[in-house]
Design goal:
This protein is mainly beta. The protein is built from two helices and 16 strands. The chain has a 16-stranded antiparallel barrel.
């Protein structure tokens, strides 16, 4: 549980995306991604893809190394005739280290070593102007098991310039922490998505999605002191994307904005900009910049100065948490990716990203004062072949 929760953000679950997209990030960047964006006909793919990826993640607080994650993964997509396709992925996370400490002056933190095994499968049927997909996913740790199902589809206009997309997903999680604080706790989450993709011009394509989630069950972190969260969490997520092809520069820019609001009181904004630049017939360079800001959960509290109370909250609140992911903070992420199509059917890509989280980076004012900065570095290496 601790390992899983420390790798989740406070901004939603993404059940439909997980079940339907087969591990976002596993699919390699294809060199043709820099071509002008156009709407696609709803057809089964003519070629299959097999991809391998290895990711390394490590975060730190001042003077202390924290979490380290090593993640090999594999992805396969194969057409079945002209009307069907199947795709799936498997991944293994080797997690070690310590979760972030509560406050600047607290040096202790729970340590862990965990192995997470996960997989998902999706089957898609292609019609003349629509698709229908059914997916399932499973994730297993020594103290946390999750199962999810999804149903998703698309409907395109007659000229294929407009595509409506929809989806529904459901997940059931079972929590059994090793400290026996709770036994056989559960959490159920459902998610609904509705969106539209529109080709505005031969150089412009936009997408807008609205996602609603409803969660019931155990949301607390059993490995943190004084952590008692509400047993329900509802969220609204809005996402807007705009891709533009700059023909004079040979650059495809990708701009996105994401708004998140939930019943915990967390409200966040994410702005991301990336650009695909063709360096040659076989090389594409993609720099990216991401900014994230959020306000604190209504039950989050910073350290109190009274030594008779610290580190517990004042009084006896029903809900409380010292988890820094529930605090108010801002974050910056800077990434760089290089994709090399060294053979017509082979692509190699490497990506690095640096992430910095600070309370002072929060938009519109300072965030929670009692939380240490957090710095993270991630590397990814991928290899893919079409067949």
């Amino acid at each position: 549980m601790a390992a899983t929760e420390d790798r989740k953000t406070a901004s939603g679950w993404g059940l439909i995306a997980l079940a339907a997209c087969a591990l976002p990030g596993v699919m390699p960047a294809v060199v043709t991604a820099v071509l002008p964006a156009t709407a696609q006909a709803e057809e089964a793919p003519e070629q299959g893809v097999v991809a391998l990826k290895y990711s390394s993640y490590e975060d730190r607080q001042p003077g202390l190394k924290r979490l380290s994650v090593k993640s090999p993964s594999a992805y396969l997509m194969a057409p079945i005739g002209r009307e069907w396709s199947v795709e799936g992925s498997v991944t293994h996370d080797d997690v070690s280290g310590a979760s972030p400490r509560y406050y600047t002056d607290v040096t202790g933190a729970s340590r862990m070593h965990d192995d997470r095994k996960a997989g998902d499968l999706r089957l898609t049927r292609y019609f003349e102007r629509s698709t229908l997909s059914v997916g399932a996913s499973h994730s297993d740790e020594h103290d946390y098991v999750s199962n999810a199902l999804s149903l998703a589809g698309t409907v395109a206009s007659e000229d294929h310039n407009t595509t409506w997309n929809w989806g529904v997903g459901a997940a059931h999680d079972r929590i059994n922490p090793v400290n026996d604080l709770v036994d056989n706790e559960t959490r159920r989450t459902t998610e609904w998505l509705l969106g539209v993709t529109q080709a505005l011009t031969p150089q412009d394509i936009v997408q807008a999605n609205l996602t609603l989630t409803r969660g019931r069950g155990y949301f607390s972190d059993p490995y943190k002191l004084f952590d008692a969260r509400p047993r329900q969490r509802n969220a609204t997520i809005a996402l807007v994307r705009w891709n533009h092809w700059w023909s004079d520069l040979g650059v495809a820019s990708k701009l996105s904005y994401r708004f998140y609001d939930d019943s915990f009181g967390i409200r966040s904004h994410t702005l991301e900009l990336a650009a695909d630049k063709r360096l040659s017939d076989t090389l594409v360079l993609t720099p990216s910049l991401r900014y994230y800001t959020q306000r604190a959960a209504s039950f989050y509290y910073d350290p109190v100065s009274d030594p008779n109370v610290y580190p517990a909250p004042y009084g006896t609140p029903t809900d409380s948490s010292t988890d820094q992911r529930m605090s108010a903070f801002g974050a910056l992420g800077l990434g760089l990716k290089l994709a090399w199509q060294f053979e017509p059917d082979w692509t190699l890509d490497v990506k690095g990203e640096q992430y910095e989280q600070r309370s002072s980076l929060r938009l519109g004012g300072h965030g929670s004062p009692g939380v240490d900065p957090l710095t993270a570095t991630q590397w990814q290496l991928g290899l893919a072949r079409r067949f």
